[in-house]
Design a protein that fits this description.
mainly alpha
Length: 102
């Protein structure tokens, strides 16, 4: 099995080597180099376009929305803590006082 795979790989490499052209390889290398240089040159522009597309798809929340979301998350966390501390009335009362201030 191993010899069959090796002979197949060797025959593929041999066939590729027969059709190998140094000029074609240089053209491919030059094309890749130019493409890489253009990407590096326009990287700031491309990053800006990517950020703009991200904001179109998922806009940033305003400060008020972030504050409301944080307060809602905190209130839900306090409620979970209250529900988990049913056996400890003093802790539950303290958490209720905290929740009332939030």
């Amino acid at each position: 099995m191993y010899l069959h795979i090796m002979s197949t790989i060797i025959s593929l490499v041999h066939a590729a080597a027969q059709h190998f052209s140094l000029i074609a390889a240089l053209e491919i290398t030059a094309g890749l180099t130019v493409a890489l240089a253009l990407l590096l040159l326009f990287k700031p522009l491309l990053l800006g376009v990517a950020r703009a597309l991200k904001l179109v798809i998922k806009p940033k929340l305003t400060k008020e929305q972030r504050l409301q979301r944080r307060q809602m998350r905190d209130a839900m966390m306090l409620n979970r803590m209250l529900n988990s501390m049913e056996g400890s009335p003093s802790h539950a009362a303290e958490l209720r006082a905290l929740a009332a201030r939030a």
